[in-house]
Amino acid sequence: MKLYQAIKYYTNTILAPSHKILSRLWPLLIAIRYEILIIYKVTVADWTTAIIPPLLMAIGAFYMYFFSSISTYDGGYFNAILHVISPRIFRVIIYFTNYLIFFNWFNQLNSVEEDRINKPFRPIPSGLITVKGAKYHLAAFSIIYPIIAYLIGGLSSLCLCFMWQAWTVFNEVLKLGKNAFHKNLFSAVGMWIQLASCYYIMVDTDPGISELLNNKPCLFKFAIFFFILTTAQVQDMGDQKGDKLSGRKTLPLLMKDNTCRWLTVLMLAISFLMLHSVANVFLLTIAEENLENNIIDGFVGKEFGIVEFILLALNVFTCIRLFMYRDPKHDSFTYQIGYGGIYCTMCLYYGMCINKYIKY
Fold first, then answer.
1. Checking CA distances to 142, which of 65, 136, 246, 264 falls within 20 to 30 Å?
2. pLDDT tens digits, residue range 161-183?
C-alpha cells in the first residue's frame, strides 16, 4: 500500500496537470497508476513464494560464482555486474512477475467468494476491478507471458511457460484445488517448474525439451519438492473459515486444526533434515572435486553453514508460531514470514549449490 500511496501522491501533486502537454498525458498517467495498483494487489500476497525465491536463487548463484570465499573468478567485478548479473536478474524478475500475474488472475477468478472472507484486499472483492475486467486482464497476460518468456529465455523458457499455464488451467478448470492433497501436489509441481525456469534463465543455456525438468542437482530439488508437498497446508491455516463456507477440503479442515499443526511441524523437521543430508552430500562432492583440482584445498565455504543456520532458525520460528499464534491474522504472518522465509532460504541455498553451472 505504501508503494501505491507514493505513486498517488506523486501523480496528484508533483505531476498535477498544470502544463498543457501534461494535461493531455494525464489520462495515461492515471491509467498507468491504476494498472500498477492492480498488479500490486493481485500479486503482493505471493511475492515470498513466487518472485523473491527465484530472485534469491539467482543472487545466491551469482554471489558464490563471483564474490564468495570459494570463488575462482579473477575478472573485473564491474564487468560481471554490468554484463552478467544485472541483465539476468532483471530477466528473472520480469519473467516471474508475469508467471505470478497469470496464475493469480486465474486463481482469483475461481475463488471470489472465499476471497471476500479470507483476502478482502484482493482486487475483485475490494471492488478495484470487476470480474469482467479481471477476465480481460487474464486474457491479456495469457498472451503477454509466453511472449516475454520467449524473449527472455528462448524455447526453453517458452516451453516451461506453457507447462505452467497448462498445469494451472488443469488445476483451476477441474477445481482440484478443493482437494487438500492435490493442492499440495499442485504447489510442489509448480515449484519444480519455477526452479527449472529460473535455472535456465540464470545459467543462460537453452536445453533440449527432454532436459527441461532435469536440471542439476535433482536430489536437492527433490528435497524442496518434498518440503512443499508435505507442508504447503501452512497457507490454509488462516483461511479455514472461508474454506469451510466455500466447500474446500483443506488439510486443517479434514484433520482438525490441532492435528494438522502437529503433522506440519513434524514434516517441517523431516524436510529440514532431508535437505541438510542432500546438501551435505552435494557439498562433499564439491569439496572432493576442489581438492582433486587443487582449488582452495577442498574448502566449500562458510556461506553454506550460515544459510543452514538461517534455515534452522526459520524452521524453529515457524513451528513455534504454528502453536502459539492460531488466529487468521497471525497464521497469515506465519505463512508470509516464517514459511515463506524457509522457502526463500531453500532457493537461495539451491542457487549457491548450482553456481558452477553458470555460463559466462
1. 246
2. 999 999 999 887 777 767 778 88
